[in-house]
Design a protein that fits this description.
Length: 796
């Protein structure tokens, strides 16, 4: 007969402050279906999902079923299936504009694997000690690449495990510790009574009475599917009966399904046994994840337990009778609170749990008892060190002052010595332990197939290394950190460019550079801190500031020109007979500057509608393009002898675009590209045709909803750049035309081809916020940050 590990399952559903009889939405406990993918036949699944905001129970349940279908349909490792389940739900959430918290557990033999996304909590109560595993702060559905945390623990007798996707669990460690030894029904009742808010989840209990159950015939799996579990195969749904809140899952130590009681023998559901040819159970190899593994979002490893404040644990089996209340204790057998606490073999929770102030009295009594024990021990130590000083057999006669002094002095001495030992040796041992865990995770990642399959192990290695370096750093930890960072860079196609300062010492301590423009030999920048437009020329090793450059040199330097809004390069001959820059202020005034020439000002003729807000300009050929989102227009000015003048023409004539949130524009040959605040872009071409009547017709054709393409795993076509909040962008001309987008939050530069195919991303690590980017031939990339401009050469 094969020994079985029996786990009892109960579903929690509290709404409106009362327990509900209906199955909780988004909560599932499932056995594997008949046609499960390779590696899933021995896995039992637990799902707890909670949608954020207002959403119907039907949608919540459907998303939970999607997670189950993805899990049982994914071959390979347990973590790969858990990740696919989270990805399936995340995709539906992103498409629907929703967010959620998700906790998924998979039981294989005596091993429980978990994945957490967003809010949620996994609680382990083991012999009165409570361990909590929290979810991440970033909810599922907030991005295309969800943050998934993986946890693992080895199930032991008397374990009590609670899974919930709730963002604020109401149970304290003390109340949870008091659940040890109770029957599952009592556990659920206690949890419901201590809940003052809506909550759903699962309770998994491993009985203390070992794990032996007699194999019985398998149930009839052809029965109709229980309510709330539609969308899965009938065998998979048969693991839970909606009419019974409690469920039993039986599995052997090898994780294979076993036979269990039939439908008439109780609420448990049987699972067919799989054995080897010789009749013995097939043992599975040890899982590669160590017990208590740590992932994102925890300050301590999962295996680190936190005392719950309860000194004793009853250790009773799950089938123990219900505990007596105060009214059940009668006659002379009743004892005082002090007597109950003095008895080390008696659980104080068995006695008068409802007595007012019982908890505080218990704590006070234990503090007094501990103080007395410490005092006696201290006196005995003194007598042994100085024989004849006192009689250790009569320490009850010592003065209260002496007892109080020793009670205060000894703990201080013990804590001081312990702290000294910890800081001298304990921190080093902690560092070495965490570093070893990180090295183990790196080895596990290296033996995986190249690509996304190795990402969970690299992520785990990163978290262990972060814990290690919270104690200290070493050459080995720095080397390991570089190795992990390189692995993530390869997975995400991240290139870390070697940015160098353009000008030695920067542009001054008060400088704040907000615009930058460049050519093959010249560099221009607008300093908002001093109101200056700077020019620097290339020296071969960097750039040198041109002290003779005449342009804007302060807010009142040129009365006819105000604060610049935008600045671009004007090719030769331009307004000054040579290559230079043209800047515009909020009133449409223009300023032309070039090396070796005096600045020149001009004024654009205001449109008939007047100016709204000038956002950005671009020069292409002899035309100046002005973006005015308030007036929902792009205006075109022609140049006469390099000076832009005359009445403007509308770019959009027949079909007017909605430009209210446009923030930047660029000209790629004859194509106008407009960037919006939400990360979308428009791509339009404008042509002038002759009609049959001899008139001119202006026609503008715009691409319908341009999509950014990304071939990385987990990314697909979408209207915005994944993981970016673009602030500005720049067009880089042939021989390799490209678009570069500056992320306004992280300062990362995203590189896309003209067909909007993802090429790479270039992170920056400057102390100041990156405010502007530009490009220059042949393949230089410039970024402005604070008082400095940095440049790097792209390896195309």
């Amino acid at each position: 007969m094969t020994e079985l590990l029996k786990a009892n399952i109960d579903l929690l559903h509290v709404a409106g402050g009362e327990e509900q009889n209906s199955p909780p939405p988004g909560t599932l406990a499932l056995s594997p279906p008949r046609k499960a993918a390779r590696g899933r036949a021995h896995d039992y699944l637990f799902v707890s999902l909670k949608l954020l905001g207002t959403a119907g129970e039907g949608r919540t349940s459907r998303l939970a079923q999607s997670a189950a279908q993805a899990f049982f349909g994914t071959p390979g490792s347990v973590t790969a299936a858990l990740r696919q389940a989270a990805m399936a739900v995340n995709q539906e959430l992103v498409d629907s504009g929703l967010e959620a918290g998700l906790v998924v557990g998979a039981l294989r033999g005596q091993n429980l694997y978990f994945s957490e996304c967003g809010a949620g909590e996994i609680i382990l109560v083991r012999f009165g000690v409570v361990s909590r595993m929290y979810g991440s702060k970033r909810p599922l559905g907030s991005s295309l690449a969800p943050m998934i945390q993986f946890q693992h623990l080895e199930v032991r007798p008397s374990d009590l495990i609670i899974l919930t996707a709730a963002d604020d669990v109401p149970w304290s460690d003390l109340s949870l510790a008091g659940l040890t030894g109770l029957a599952l029904e009592q556990v659920s009742d206690r949890l419901v009574e201590a809940t003052d808010r809506d909550i759903t989840g699962l309770v998994i209990q491993v009985p203390a009475t070992a794990s032996v159950a007699s194999p019985r015939s398998a149930p009839d799996l052809s029965a109709p599917s229980p309510a709330g579990l539609t969308g899965l195969d009938a065998p998979a749904r048969s693991a839970l009966d909606a009419s019974d809140r409690s469920t039993e899952i039986l599995s052997g130590s090898d994780g294979s399904p076993r036979s269990a009681p039939d439908a008439n023998s109780g609420p448990g559901v049987g699972l067919t046994a799989l054995e080897t040819g010789d009749g013995s159970s097939q043992s599975s190899p040890d899982p590669p994840i160590a017990e208590g593994e740590h992932t994102v979002g925890h300050e301590h490893p999962v295996g680190q337990e936190h005392p719950a404040g309860s000194e004793h644990s009853s250790g009773r089996p799950s089938d123990a009778p219900a505990r007596a209340s105060t009214s059940d204790v009668e006659g002379p057998g009743r004892r005082t609170v002090a007597e109950e606490l003095e008895d080390p073999g008696h659980d104080p929770d068995d006695f008068s749990r409802n007595i007012p102030g019982f908890g505080m009295r218990r704590i006070a009594f234990r503090l007094r008892a501990a103080t007395k024990r410490v005092s006696r021990m201290a006196v005995e130590v003194i007598v042994r060190l100085i024989p004849g000083t006192l009689d250790p057999q009569q320490f009850d006669e010592f003065s209260p002052n002496l007892l109080a002094f020793t009670a205060a002095a000894v703990p201080i001495l013990v804590v001081g010595l312990s702290s000294l030992i910890y800081f001298k040796h304990g921190r080093v041992e902690q560092f070495e332990s965490y570093l070893a865990q990180a090295q183990s995770a790196v080895i596990s990642a290296q033996i995986q197939a190249p690509g996304e399959d190795s990402r969970p192990d690299w992520l785990l290695a990163s978290q262990w290394l972060d814990l290690a370096e919270s104690y200290r750093t070493s050459q080995e930890s720095l080397r390991l950190g570089s190795q992990i960072q390189l692995a993530f860079d390869e997975l995400d196609q991240v290139i870390r460019l070697d940015f160098v300062p353009a000008v030695s010492g920067g542009f001054g301590p008060k400088a704040n550079l907000t615009f930058v423009a460049a050519t093959a030999t010249d560099l221009y920048a607008y300093d908002e801190g001093t109101g200056t437009i700077w020019h620097a020329w290339a020296t071969g090793r960097g750039y040198e500031i041109d002290s003779q450059f005449e342009c804007l040199a302060g807010a009142d330097n040129i009365p006819a020109f105000g604060r610049p809004i935008s600045m671009v390069i004007q090719r030769e001959p331009g307004a000054l007979g040579t290559e230079g820059v043209v800047a515009i202020d909020g009133d449409g005034s223009l300023l032309y500057c070039a090396p070796g020439a005096e600045p020149l000002t001009g004024q654009l003729a205001a449109p008939d509608l007047g100016w709204g807000t000038i956002q950005s300009i671009e020069v292409f050929g002899n035309k100046l393009y002005v973006l005015d989102p308030v007036k929902n227009a792009v205006w075109i000015y022609d140049a006469a002898d390099g000076l832009f003048s005359g009445s403007p023409a509308l770019y959009f004539v027949e079909e007017v675009r909605e430009l209210g949130t446009a923030i930047d524009l660029a000209l790629a040959q004859d194509e106008l590209i407009i960037l919006y605040a939400d990360g979308r872009i428009d791509r339009c071409r404008r042509t002038i045709e002759n009609t049959l009547e001899g008139n001119l017709r202006i026609r503008v054709e715009c691409e319908s909803e341009p999509q950014f393409q990304d071939e990385r795993a987990g990314f697909g076509p979408r209207a915005t750049i994944p993981g970016a909040d673009p602030l500005r962008f720049v067009y880089s001309p042939p021989p390799e035309p490209s678009l570069f987008f500056l992320d306004g939050i992280e300062g990362t530069v995203f590189h896309y081809s003209m067909r909007l195919v993802y090429q790479a991303q270039y992170p920056t690590t400057f102390e100041a916020q990156v405010s502007a980017i530009t490009g220059a031939p042949p393949n230089d990339l410039f970024v402005a940050a604070g008082d400095q401009i940095y440049f790097a050469q792209l390896g195309r």
